[in-house]
Amino acid sequence: MAASLSSAGTVRVLSTLARSSLLCSSSGSRGLHVTAACCKNRAARTRVGKGEKPLTYEQAFHPHHIGHCKGWLSQHTSNLKGEEGAAERTMEDVFIRKFMFGTFHGSLANEIVLKRRGNMLIVCALMIQKMSPLKFYFLIGYTETLLSHFYKCPVKLEVQTLQDKAVYKYI
Amino acid sequence: MAAPTVLRRQLFPLARILSGLSHLKPRSLTVCSGHRRCAVSRFPPPLTPSASFHTATPLSSSAITVTEEPDVLFQKVLVLVKSHDRAVLDSYEFFATTAAQELGITVGKVFEPQKDIERVTLLKSVHIFKNHRVQYEMRTHFRCIELSHITGSTAKVYLEYVQRNLPEGVAMEVTKTAMEKVPDHILKPMWEDLPADDKPSQ
């Protein structure tokens, strides 16, 4: 699939893909072909409001800006030509984003950036200083241990904290 | 004998790597987009074995082995790196070529094969509207570094250094062309050794 959609877009694409794969009949003279719906006009775009909605830099730019003014949220080699494992990496990414969103509830300032270097999985997150540092350290250690047991690879969390969300513009 | 040269060449580059090359790390470009208040330029971790790659044994225990067998000689070692981001490949090429020059490896040519774009055309809507479609593409940029006339141990050291500092999202393919000694039995043409025979004629 495309380079990197935000979590909501990815979940929607995956659910439509799952539905379409159930509908596809494999053999027989009359096959049903269903392609994935991509909702290109609405993916990862915030609807314009009256000027009261704050947007971070990530949310302010649309997916066609990836590679121009946006970077990639999850960096791995499986989408390159001749490389395999794209589906597994995507599933891992979706799970990790949901897991982080749930563990650090309400204190994520921006989307999670996932980097895979060799065997290691590095999760870079920006947090809001909502809890005391002690609780943050516990949650970071808990996340690292659990994820490294799930995925059988070293998982490192790189966390930076802010006072509040970095707003790029208001829509 | 290849053994003393093996020993010398493995010690020398290792010493230079550990002492003088810390300024040569590629600067991984900020692809955590637009987090303006965070530290924008992140340097990859220093060349300690546990930081960049998870290894079971520390670097010091990978002992310098002195073997009797001669070292493999490579005519050409082709390092092809692929990525989605051209700027990352530019920076990595600078790092790899400078590292090769510092280690005294002759760099043949450094070129950029044409990028490959994989396009997918899908229906925009869930139901009907066949005339309205959406296209996605995945671009792969390449960069090829050719090293010529390199020994096996130098190649091992260089490739290990360069691979430990591969940025995330960059894949590498290494093609090695080895040189072998021509077997003795085909060095001279056979007809020179034959005694002066009469030609078998009918």
Please describe what this structure looks like.
Chain A has helices at residues 7-23, 57-60, 86-103, 133-151; strands at residues 54-55, 74-75, 113-117, 120-128, 155-162, 169-170. In chain A, 28% of the residues are buried. Residues 1-28 of chain A have low confidence and may be disordered. Chain A has a four-stranded mixed β-sheet with strand order 2-3-4-5, with helices on one face. In chain A, strands 1-6 form a two-stranded antiparallel ribbon. In chain A, a hairpin with a 2-residue loop joins β3 and β4 (120-128). Chain A has a domain at 67-164: K homology (KH) domain (GMP Synthetase, Chain A, domain 3, 2-Layer Sandwich), CATH 3.30.300.20. The two termini of chain A are 29 Å apart. By secondary structure, chain A is of the alpha/beta class. Chain A is flat, with a radius of gyration of 18 Å. By secondary structure, chain B is α+β, with helices and mostly antiparallel strands. Chain B is built from four helices and five strands. Chain B has helices at 2-20, 49-52, 86-102, 152-164, and strands at 73-83, 106-111, 116-123, 133-151, 170-179. In chain B, α1 runs parallel beside α4. Chain A binds chain B through residues 1-3, 16, 35-41, 56-58, 61, 67, 69-73, 75-77, 79-83, 110, 113, 115-120, 122, 124, 126, 153-154, 160, 162, 166, 168, and chain B through 29-39, 52-54, 82-85, 116, 118, 120, 122-126, 134, 136-140, 166-171. Chain B: It is found in: Mitochondrion. Chain B: Belongs to the universal ribosomal protein uS10 family. Chain B: Pfam families: Ribosomal_S10. Chain B: One of its GO terms (molecular function) is structural constituent of ribosome.
